[in-house]
Specification:
By secondary structure, the protein is α+β, with helices and mostly antiparallel strands. Helix content is 34%, strand content 23%. The protein folds into 3 domains: 100 residues, Rossmann fold; 61 residues, 2-Layer Sandwich (Dna Ligase, domain 1); 181 residues, D-amino Acid Aminotransferase, Chain A, domain 1 (2-Layer Sandwich). The strands form 3 sheets. It has a 6-stranded antiparallel beta sheet, with helices on both faces. It has a 4-stranded parallel beta sheet with strand order 3-2-1-4. A hairpin with a 4-residue loop joins strand 12 and strand 13. 39% of the residues are buried.
């Protein structure tokens, strides 16, 4: 049986909660490597749990030791969140170990992992279409920046996630003010702001080759357009597909990736904004589209013949999807009564997105919702 080792250091990050479900449904043996409070354990779809300490150094040493001693037992190792990727990238030296554990098969591109500066450098190296950017150094002249890049710009902290480290700046003086608010002024990317549609993409790669993907227009954000999303419409697009193929082969993507584009309508162009080579919360919901990642995982493990023939008639069908707990929390927070009614009256089949398939996961997600909603009322 094809065996996957899923691992996550963070215990506050809920995305890993549904990932074992995808692998189990694809026919894998699922082993999870995490602490006892990690979301990886909040489901009924893993076969074995390897407990590990919450201490960073012990976590890193334990995972490296496990792979060195028993790596042959795992056909695939998947790091599920940014913090885990950053930890391992900072501590792995040997190339063979890097390729076994990390989500890239080209160690020379490791600078892009959990680093926006490194990512921008790698994009430039391979002539990948992105908004113009500058890597900021504390001694930079702010007026000079305005001559090199058009405003408005986005100020991005090097290591951040879910939009927490992004600020929009309309002019050099505003950029200066917001940079001065930061504790670390040496690891910053200044990126041209392109007005357009946010396109969220999830993709699965193996050895640099694109296996499957899905793209989406964003319908709702939790807070603002730099925060995480709660509702999307999924679709297929040939330009995005070709861009993903180039990206995967150039960079050496070798696992799941959460990818962001901006679509500029007048130029009819997709600008690559970021690539996080990890899972995200939308990937398990691909089962509600015609491009399920479960089928992609089957293809990797068992070959194309294991995947059902796609119904070409519905290949490009658009599908609206919402994440149950996120969207309800957004509705309560923003007093979106119309949004609440979508869930009450099963708008477009929204009830199917409630994770009732797993009582263990559903229980924890409901507890999280109750705690979060209670905080909102304070």
């Amino acid at each position: 049986m094809y065996t996957v080792l899923l691992t996550s250091f963070s215990d506050f990050f809920d995305t890993p909660g549904e990932v074992p479900f995808m692998y189990k449904k694809a026919g894998y043996k699922v082993v999870v490597f995490c602490c006892d409070t990690c979301w990886l354990r909040s489901n009924s779809y893993y076969d074995e749990w390897i407990e590990v300490s919450k201490d960073k150094a012990i976590f890193v040493d334990s995972l490296i030791k496990l792979i060195k001693e028993k790596g042959s037992e795992f056909d695939k190792v998947v790091l599920l969140d940014d913090e885990t990727i950053k930890l391992m990238n900072e501590n792995i030296i040997e190339e063979d170990l890097f390729v076994k554990i990390m989500p890239l098969n080209k160690i020379e591109n490791r600078g892009m992992l959990s680093s926006k500066i490194g990512m921008s450098t790698v994009f430039e190296k391979y002539n990948i279409t992105t908004p113009r950017y500058l890597n900021f150094a504390e001694e930079n002249d702010f007026e000079a920046i305005g001559k090199k890049i058009d405003f408005p710009v986005l100020l991005k902290v090097d290591f951040s996630f879910s939009g927490t480290g992004i600020r929009k700046c309309e002019a050099p003086n505003e950029l200066e003010d917001k940079i001065n608010e930061l504790h670390d002024k040496k690891n910053i990317v200044i990126q041209e702001f392109i007005e357009g549609d946010d396109i969220g993409v999830e993709a699965l790669f193996s050895g640099g080759e694109l296996i499957c993907y899905q793209a989406a227009r964003v319908l709702s954000y939790m807070n603002n357009k730099f925060s995480f999303t709660t509702r999307r419409i999924y679709f297929r697009n040939e330009k995005i597909e070709k861009s993903l193929q180039q990206l995967g082969r150039s960079v050496g993507l070798n696992s799941f990736a959460s990818i962001g584009y901006i679509y500029h309508k007048e130029r009819d162009s997709y600008y690559l904004i970021e690539v996080d080579p990890r899972t995200n919360s939308w990937m398990p919901y691909s089962r509600f589209t015609n491009n399920s990642f479960i089928d992609g995982l089957k293809q990797i493990a068992f070959g194309k013949e294991s995947v059902p023939v796609l119904n070409k008639k519905n290949e490009n069908k658009e599908t609206e999807i919402a994440i149950f707990d996120r969207d309800l929390r957004r509705c309560v927070k923003t007093k979106d009564l119309k949004g609440i009614m979508r869930w009450v009256f099963n708008y477009k089949g929204y009830w199917r997105f409630i994770p009732l398939y797993d009582k263990k996961y559903f229980s924890r997600i409901m507890n999280k919702m109750i705690v979060d909603l209670f905080k909102l009322k304070k």
